[in-house]
Amino acid sequence: MMCKSSDECHGRSTYVTSIVDSVVRTFWVKNNVRGVVLALAKMSNHSVLVDVLSACMDKSEIFTLEICALLLPLLKDLLTSQYDRYLTVALSVISLLLKSFGSIIQETRLAARPAPGVDLSGEQRLDRCNKCYEGFVSVREILEPLVRRGGDAAQAASELHMALSEVR
Q1: What angle in degrees, to the nearest 10, is found between the helix axes of 84-111 and 154-164?
Q2: Which domain, by its residues, includes 40?
Protein backbone atom coordinates (compact mmCIF):
# COMPACT_ATOMS: atom_id res chain seq x y z
CA MET A 1 0.00 0.00 0.00
CA MET A 2 1.30 3.41 -0.94
CA CYS A 3 0.99 6.34 1.44
CA LYS A 4 -0.53 9.56 0.18
CA SER A 5 1.27 11.71 2.75
CA SER A 6 4.08 11.47 5.26
CA ASP A 7 1.53 11.70 8.09
CA GLU A 8 -0.33 8.70 6.68
CA CYS A 9 2.93 6.72 6.39
CA HIS A 10 3.88 7.62 9.94
CA GLY A 11 0.43 6.59 11.17
CA ARG A 12 0.63 3.25 9.41
CA SER A 13 4.16 2.69 10.69
CA THR A 14 3.08 3.45 14.26
CA TYR A 15 0.07 1.14 13.88
CA VAL A 16 2.18 -1.74 12.55
CA THR A 17 4.77 -1.22 15.29
CA SER A 18 2.09 -1.32 17.97
CA ILE A 19 0.69 -4.57 16.54
CA VAL A 20 4.18 -6.09 16.46
CA ASP A 21 4.82 -4.98 20.04
CA SER A 22 1.48 -6.38 21.13
CA VAL A 23 2.09 -9.81 19.59
CA VAL A 24 5.62 -10.08 20.95
CA ARG A 25 4.47 -8.87 24.40
CA THR A 26 1.67 -11.49 24.45
CA PHE A 27 4.14 -14.33 23.90
CA TRP A 28 6.66 -12.77 26.29
CA VAL A 29 4.14 -12.49 29.14
CA LYS A 30 3.23 -16.15 28.65
CA ASN A 31 6.96 -16.98 28.87
CA ASN A 32 6.72 -18.52 25.40
CA VAL A 33 10.17 -17.71 23.99
CA ARG A 34 9.60 -20.02 21.03
CA GLY A 35 6.41 -18.10 20.21
CA VAL A 36 8.28 -14.79 20.44
CA VAL A 37 10.98 -16.00 18.03
CA LEU A 38 8.45 -17.43 15.59
CA ALA A 39 6.45 -14.19 15.69
CA LEU A 40 9.60 -12.16 15.09
CA ALA A 41 10.50 -14.38 12.14
CA LYS A 42 7.09 -13.86 10.54
CA MET A 43 7.17 -10.10 11.06
CA SER A 44 10.59 -9.48 9.51
CA ASN A 45 11.03 -6.30 11.54
CA HIS A 46 14.73 -5.85 12.28
CA SER A 47 14.14 -3.00 14.70
CA VAL A 48 11.83 -5.04 16.94
CA LEU A 49 14.10 -8.09 16.64
CA VAL A 50 17.10 -6.06 17.82
CA ASP A 51 15.10 -4.59 20.72
CA VAL A 52 13.93 -8.03 21.86
CA LEU A 53 17.42 -9.53 21.50
CA SER A 54 18.93 -6.65 23.45
CA ALA A 55 16.47 -7.32 26.26
CA CYS A 56 17.36 -11.04 26.20
CA MET A 57 21.12 -10.62 26.40
CA ASP A 58 21.10 -10.67 30.20
CA LYS A 59 18.72 -13.62 30.31
CA SER A 60 20.84 -16.30 28.67
CA GLU A 61 18.89 -19.01 30.51
CA ILE A 62 15.96 -18.52 28.12
CA PHE A 63 18.04 -19.80 25.21
CA THR A 64 17.73 -23.48 24.34
CA LEU A 65 19.00 -25.53 21.42
CA GLU A 66 15.60 -25.12 19.79
CA ILE A 67 15.67 -21.33 20.25
CA CYS A 68 19.25 -21.26 18.97
CA ALA A 69 18.21 -23.12 15.80
CA LEU A 70 15.29 -20.72 15.29
CA LEU A 71 17.34 -17.58 15.97
CA LEU A 72 20.38 -18.26 13.79
CA PRO A 73 18.62 -17.56 10.44
CA LEU A 74 17.24 -14.30 11.87
CA LEU A 75 20.67 -13.32 13.17
CA LYS A 76 22.25 -14.18 9.82
CA ASP A 77 19.77 -11.82 8.18
CA LEU A 78 20.65 -9.08 10.69
CA LEU A 79 24.31 -9.41 9.71
CA THR A 80 23.42 -8.00 6.28
CA SER A 81 22.14 -4.78 7.85
CA GLN A 82 23.73 -1.42 7.23
CA TYR A 83 23.16 -0.37 10.86
CA ASP A 84 26.04 -0.88 13.28
CA ARG A 85 23.71 -1.41 16.24
CA TYR A 86 21.99 -4.30 14.46
CA LEU A 87 25.36 -5.84 13.59
CA THR A 88 26.67 -5.43 17.12
CA VAL A 89 23.60 -7.01 18.70
CA ALA A 90 23.58 -9.88 16.19
CA LEU A 91 27.28 -10.58 16.76
CA SER A 92 26.82 -10.48 20.53
CA VAL A 93 23.88 -12.88 20.48
CA ILE A 94 25.66 -15.28 18.11
CA SER A 95 28.70 -15.25 20.40
CA LEU A 96 26.46 -15.93 23.39
CA LEU A 97 24.77 -18.84 21.59
CA LEU A 98 28.12 -20.25 20.52
CA LYS A 99 29.47 -20.09 24.08
CA SER A 100 26.30 -21.67 25.43
CA PHE A 101 25.87 -24.44 22.88
CA GLY A 102 29.06 -24.86 20.87
CA SER A 103 30.46 -27.72 22.94
CA ILE A 104 27.05 -29.42 23.23
CA ILE A 105 26.59 -29.26 19.47
CA GLN A 106 30.07 -30.61 18.81
CA GLU A 107 29.84 -33.41 21.39
CA THR A 108 26.37 -34.49 20.26
CA ARG A 109 27.34 -34.56 16.60
CA LEU A 110 30.54 -36.51 17.30
CA ALA A 111 28.80 -39.02 19.56
CA ALA A 112 25.92 -39.65 17.16
CA ARG A 113 25.86 -43.36 16.49
CA PRO A 114 22.94 -45.55 15.64
CA ALA A 115 21.78 -47.16 18.87
CA PRO A 116 19.56 -50.17 19.22
CA GLY A 117 15.96 -49.22 19.79
CA VAL A 118 14.34 -45.85 19.48
CA ASP A 119 15.71 -42.79 21.27
CA LEU A 120 13.33 -40.00 20.30
CA SER A 121 14.83 -37.41 22.63
CA GLY A 122 18.34 -38.29 21.41
CA GLU A 123 17.24 -38.00 17.79
CA GLN A 124 15.51 -34.70 18.52
CA ARG A 125 18.63 -33.34 20.24
CA LEU A 126 20.83 -34.45 17.33
CA ASP A 127 18.43 -32.81 14.87
CA ARG A 128 18.55 -29.54 16.81
CA CYS A 129 22.32 -29.72 17.06
CA ASN A 130 22.59 -30.29 13.30
CA LYS A 131 20.31 -27.30 12.63
CA CYS A 132 22.38 -25.13 14.96
CA TYR A 133 25.59 -26.34 13.31
CA GLU A 134 24.22 -25.50 9.85
CA GLY A 135 23.14 -22.08 11.15
CA PHE A 136 26.59 -21.36 12.57
CA VAL A 137 28.23 -22.46 9.31
CA SER A 138 25.98 -20.12 7.29
CA VAL A 139 26.75 -17.26 9.70
CA ARG A 140 30.48 -17.92 9.38
CA GLU A 141 30.21 -17.46 5.60
CA ILE A 142 28.78 -13.96 6.05
CA LEU A 143 31.37 -12.80 8.57
CA GLU A 144 34.31 -12.53 6.16
CA PRO A 145 32.80 -9.58 4.22
CA LEU A 146 31.97 -7.89 7.55
CA VAL A 147 35.60 -8.15 8.63
CA ARG A 148 36.79 -6.67 5.32
CA ARG A 149 34.20 -3.90 5.52
CA GLY A 150 35.78 -2.54 8.69
CA GLY A 151 33.97 -0.35 11.15
CA ASP A 152 32.94 -0.98 14.73
CA ALA A 153 31.69 -4.51 14.13
CA ALA A 154 34.77 -5.76 12.24
CA GLN A 155 36.75 -6.79 15.33
CA ALA A 156 33.82 -8.68 16.85
CA ALA A 157 33.12 -10.31 13.47
CA SER A 158 36.75 -11.38 13.19
CA GLU A 159 36.76 -12.92 16.69
CA LEU A 160 33.47 -14.69 16.04
CA HIS A 161 34.72 -15.98 12.68
CA MET A 162 37.73 -17.55 14.40
CA ALA A 163 35.57 -19.07 17.14
CA LEU A 164 33.11 -20.49 14.60
CA SER A 165 35.92 -22.10 12.61
CA GLU A 166 36.52 -24.39 15.61
CA VAL A 167 32.96 -25.77 15.59
CA ARG A 168 32.75 -29.12 13.84
Answers
A1: 10
A2: 9-164
Q: Give the three-state DSSP class for 54.
A: helix
Question: How confident is the model at residue 133, as a pLDDT?
Answer: 94
5 exposure class (CB count in 10 Å sphere: 0-12, 13-18, 19+)? exposed
Residues 6+ apart with CB under 8 A from 13: none
Residue 130: inside a domain, yes or no? yes
Report yes or no on 2 lying in a domain: no
Looking at the structure of the chain, the number of domains it has is 1
CB-CB contact of 17 with 56 (8 Å): no
* Chain centre distance of CA 74: 5
Exposure on the CB side of residue 162, measured as CA atoms within 13 A: 6
Whether residue 153 contacts residue 132, with contact meaning beta carbons closer than 8 Å, is answered with no
15 part of a folded domain? yes
In angstroms, rounded to a whole number, what is the distance separating the alpha carbons of residues 41 and 163?
Answer: 26
pLDDT-derived band at 8 (thresholds 50, 70, 90) equals very low
pLDDT digits (tens, 9 = 90+) for 37-73: 888 888 888 888 888 888 878 877 888 999 999 999 9
Does a structural domain hold residue 27? yes
Q: What is the pTM of this model?
A: 0.81
How far is it, in rounded angstroms, from Cα 37 to Cα 127? Answer: 19
